[in-house]
Amino acid sequence: MVTWSRYPVVAALQVTFIALFVRSSCCYRYQVHDVHAGRFDGIGGLSGGGATSRLLVNYPLKLRNHILDYLFLIWNERRYNSTYIKVLRQTLDKAGLHSVGIIASDSKWQIVKDIVSDVELSAAIDVIGVHYPGTSSPPAARATKKPLWSSEDYSTFNDAIGAGCWARILNQNYINGKMTSTISWNLIASYYEALPFPRSGLMTAEQPWSGFYRVEPPIWITAHTTQFAKPGWHYLNSSAHLILGGSFAAFTDGLRNLTIVIETMTYNHSRCIRPPLSPYNVSPQTAAFHLPPPYALFTSLYVWYSKLKYDGSQSVLFQQRSPVKVDRGTFSLQLGVDEIYTVTSMATGRHGQHPDPPGPRPFPVLYKDDFDVVYPQFSEAPNFADQTGVFEYFTNLSDPGPHTSTLRQVITTRPITWEMDASQTISVIGNHNWTDVMVTCDVLMETSGTGGVFVAVRVDVGGENVAFARGIYLWILAEGAFSVTNDLAGKNVLAQGKAHVRSGEWYSLTLKVKGNTTSCASDGLVLWRGLTPTEPTNGWVAIGTKSFENVQFDNFMLRAE
Q: Which of 2.40.300.10, 3.40.50.300, 3.20.20.80, 3.40.50.1000 is the CATH number of 2-344?
């Protein structure tokens, strides 16, 4: 369930819009009769609570602005609570936030039954939102007369197949399910690629240290609709499937402007990661569209074209073509497979382009951060990707010496999580392919008795799997001990013993793994040297804490071979 800004009420027009097709000797003809159907509420993207755009903020400002140019919950996927939703509506209204609406409830269509039977719940909910609906909705949902949204969709690798998935569902979420908005998870893949759901954004920006980014095909698929139809326009009920496969969605602003988006995505080239897609066929075809007044008065319409290719050759993406002639209200197109056409009266289309970004390069093999910044409040250090917990810049007023500016883990209570989370906090950094690495970091435990902190290398997994992360972890504990473990959970202990450590004091930890040898030290004193476990063989560098507790970090340095 998410909250959003309510849209103004738009009166529905009292005309019927119908699409009919007729097979003639030349083509299939689609007869369009004018009237407005559901209000188009736009296309959007989610940033995964910030996790999926983590690396974006570390790009140089100029390149970050270029990326944003291309681009432009509460209770995520949890069982809903009707009482909570109603109380939330009351609370928002008491606070004067009448314009903030509620979308519920992520859990497919189960909430529809409660909306029908509970008048107060129905009044509290503005939009029925579902995740990954497979382009369909039940009649009961449509009968509520509430807007239906695919409030999270896509989450597919952003190559040409991902673009085919996105093109198909953008049209067919409305055609099949009368959903008037589709929101992509995620907006931009700006996180380490070895994390779960790699490159599942509309574009990719995962190397702030090099400045490299990729404008992926789904961005241009999005442009086929968003550059020519704005939120507040209306779908036309003529939006329908094509006889030989594919679909078209038609939009109008009510001011005599018209946009038709046509897609002919084939089954093998448009399967999203979820839900399963039933097989279907698409064939090349000629389609003729007959427009009613006032659109029949057009003599030509602008055309934008994309062709997704899967044979290794380069796709054609959002290319402007010569206008199509409209003869007595009719225009025709030769449609191949895996193509997208936008036919429109709008002259607003533009294939914008910035200069090519710098080339890609791996994460630096020597990396240092002393966390000395001018304005540290609530900011994260570059390139660290928090998997559990939150690591922020901190001004340590109690230390007038070398540790005034530090990085601090600030979450002290286990949060409500989307998936199974770790009991420890952890932030990863670097290149997941690294094997032989040395990391050093100054650390300060703030919790006496039970506190603990670690540095690690070869950390193999993150995201929803982080609780099961393996690697080599060097821990010091406020009780006066150290341990070396093969896992984040601390169950597979390689070595342990007493150490001259306690809370409230700074210590410099060093962990080095080279081949089959691991060595660990605190303030230069060797704690343990021994054989490296055979698994995992590679992974990120990481820092973290024993529990949800305050710990500070300073003078971080890694060196990979």
A: 3.20.20.80
User: What is the structure's pLDDT at 15?
Assistant: 26
pLDDT of residue 76: 58
Closest CA to 345 of 263, 241, 250, 223: 250
Cα angle 91-92-93, degrees, rounded to a multiple of 5: 90
The answer to whether 548 and 425 are in contact (CB under 8 A) is: yes
Domain residue limits, the chain: 2-344, 366-560
**Helices and strands (H and E) in the chain: how many:** 7, 35
Q: pTM for the complete prediction? A: 0.91
Nearest Cα residue to 253 out of 294, 195, 298: 294
CA distances from 400 to 2, 257, 338 (A): 44, 66, 64
Q: Model confidence over 337-389: pLDDT tens digits?
A: 999 999 999 999 999 888 999 999 999 999 999 999 877 677 899 999 999 99
The span from the CA of 561 to the CA of 555, in Å, is 20
Encoding tokens for residue 537? 């063989």
For residue 556, the cross-strand partners are 369
- Please name the residue that has the structure tokens 């075809």: 285
Cα gap 163→510, rounded to integer Å: 45
Question: How much of the chain is in helix, strand and coil states, percent to nearest 5?
Answer: 15, 40, 45
Amino acid letter, residue 324: V
CA distance 340 to 7: 29
First-residue to last-residue Cα distance in the chain: 46
Inform me whether the pLDDT recorded for 560 exceeds 60: yes
- pLDDT over 90 (residue 210): yes
Angle, CA 543 vertex, CA 542 and CA 547 arms, to 5°: 125
CATH 3.50.50.60 fits 366-560, yes or no: no
Q: Are strands 247-252 and 258-263 parallel, antiparallel or unpaired?
A: antiparallel
Q: How far apart are CA 130 and CA 151, in angstroms?
A: 5
Active site residue ranges:
77, 152
Closest by Cα among 92, 93, 85 to 118: 85
User: Using alpha carbons only, what angle is made at residue 43 by residues 41 and 46, rounded to the nearest 5 degrees?
Assistant: 120
Taken as a whole, the chain contains a residue count of: 561
Q: How far apart are CA 96 and CA 145, in angstroms?
A: 26
Averaged pLDDT score across all residues of the chain: 91
Pairing of strands 525-531, 405-409: unpaired
CA angle 460–464–467, rounded 5-degree value: 60
What are the start-end ranges of the E strands in 18-147? 19-23, 28-32, 36-39, 42-46, 100-106, 127-131
| Owner of token pair 């996180």 | 191
Helix-helix angle 160-177:217-226, to 10 degrees: 30
Token couple for 290: 């007959």
Give 319-366 as a DSSP string. Answer: EEEEEEE-BTTEEEEEE-SSEEEEEES--------PPPPPPP-PPPSE
